[in-house]
Structures are given as structure tokens and as C-alpha cells.
Specification:
The chain is an all-alpha fold and 224 residues long. 83% of the residues lie in helices and 0% in strands.
Length: 224
């Protein structure tokens, strides 16, 4: 175990960084958005293009949560935000996946594959990787940037990752944008994003569906 940690220390630290950063950075951005709401309301088309380009990188490298960006976009742009958000998610997924590949260089998968049982489980999971990626993206609580890294490390095919990931993100993206469109105040939206019984039910439904589906495929892979 210690040898595994030593050989993958940078990889593990990078993954930990991706899990922690959204909580730290999003609070600072929230304060700025609340205090500059009128300026954001006056954004031009070019301003929004720049904002979404920046969001590609902030989401890819875990500086902002994807749900946070979708909520704000829904609040300020309404349903016009759907297409740019979808494109931004796709690009951020690609950036996060490829960056993790460069950082890890296949070492993580190689070390895991040295253990026959683990190798067999990974091979079983890869048979259902499209469905597993889709289910992982469905949940609003699974960190976007961390899942990019984990799928990259596990040897997931890029085409499956981008396609299934895009499809899996659609329900949670649409839900987040809808919640944003319903908000009356930006401060209330940021502090209580899931307020309302309908939104809570839908969020729990996405989380529950994701957990049950992932649990099924993991159990199937382990028992084979």
C-alpha cells in the first residue's frame, strides 16, 4: 500500500486538489457575483463568450463546480444558457481527461493491473464503461473534475467518456439551469440552490438513480 502511494503520490495529490478547490474558489466567486450583479446583468455577447471560455478551464481544473456555473448561467441568461453550458461542459471534460492522462502517464492503471483480482474487476467494469460514465455524470454530487481524473486513470476510451459524459450531464444541467431561472435573488440562489420541494425531489432522484446504477455495475464487476 505504501509503495502504491509513493509511486502515485503526485497523482493522488492532484486528485485531492481537484476535490478540495471548488469549495474554496466558489465562495470567493459567490461574493463577487453578489456584489456585482448589476454589472453582470449588463454583460455583452462578447463578455459572456469570454466568461464561458474561462469556465471551461475553471471547471476542468476544479476551480468552480459545474452545478454552480449552470445555476448562475440560468439566473442571468435563462434557457439561452443551455447550449453554451453544454459546450463548456464538453470542452472542460476533454481538458480534464487529457490533462490527467499527461500527469499520470498510465502508471496508476499499470500498478492496479499488477494485482490479478483488481485487473479482472477493471476489465469487467470496462465492458460497461459507457453506462457507468453516464450514471456517474448523472449525479449532481459527484465532483466533475475528480470523475474526469478517475475515468482517465482507469483507461476509459475517450469517445465513450465524452459521449456518455455529455448525455449524463444533460439532466443535471437542465435542472440547474431551471433552478437558476426560478430564483428571484442571486444571494438566495447561491445560499439555497435546491430550495423547493420539486427541485429537491428531482435532485434526490438523480442522486439515487446514479448510486443504484453504479452500485449494480460495480457489484456485477466484482462478482464475475
Amino acid at each position: 500500500m505504501l509503495d502504491f502511494i509513493r509511486k502515485n503520490s503526485f497523482t493522488i495529490l492532484y486528485t485531492f486538489f481537484l476535490g478540495l478547490m471548488p469549495l474554496l474558489v466558489s465562495s470567493s466567486i459567490s461574493y463577487w457575483v453578489i456584489t456585482h450583479e448589476q454589472e453582470i446583468q449588463a454583460f455583452t455577447f462578447q463578455n459572456w463568450i469570454l466568461a464561458f471560455v474561462v469556465a471551461c478551464f475553471t471547471m476542468a481544473f476544479a476551480l468552480t463546480p459545474t452545478t454552480f456555473i449552470a445555476l448562475l448561467s440560468g439566473y442571468f441568461l435563462g434557457w439561452k444558457a443551455f447550449l453554451p453550458i453544454a459546450i463548456t461542459y464538453w470542452i472542460a471534460s476533454f481538458l480534464g481527461f487529457k490533462t490527467a492522462q499527461v500527469i499520470d502517464g498510465g502508471r496508476f492503471l499499470q500498478i492496479l493491473s499488477e494485482k490479478p483480482k483488481v485487473k479482472q474487476v477493471l476489465e469487467n467494469l470496462q465492458k460497461d464503461e459507457f453506462k457507468i460514465i453516464l450514471l456517474a455524470r448523472l449525479s449532481p454530487v459527484l465532483p466533475f473534475a475528480v470523475t474526469n481524473v478517475l475515468f482517465s486513470f482507469s483507461g476509459t476510451k475517450l469517445r465513450n467518456f465524452l459521449t456518455a459524459g455529455f448525455l449524463g450531464m444533460l439532466p443535471r444541467t437542465m435542472l440547474s439551469i431551471w433552478i437558476g431561472t426560478q430564483a428571484q435573488e442571486i444571494k438566495k440562489l447561491i445560499e439555497h440552490p435546491s430550495e423547493g420541494s420539486l427541485s429537491q425531489i428531482l435532485i434526490l432522484g438523480l442522486i439515487g438513480g446514479s448510486i443504484l446504477g453504479l452500485g449494480y455495475f460495480i457489484k456485477k464487476a466484482v462478482e464475475k
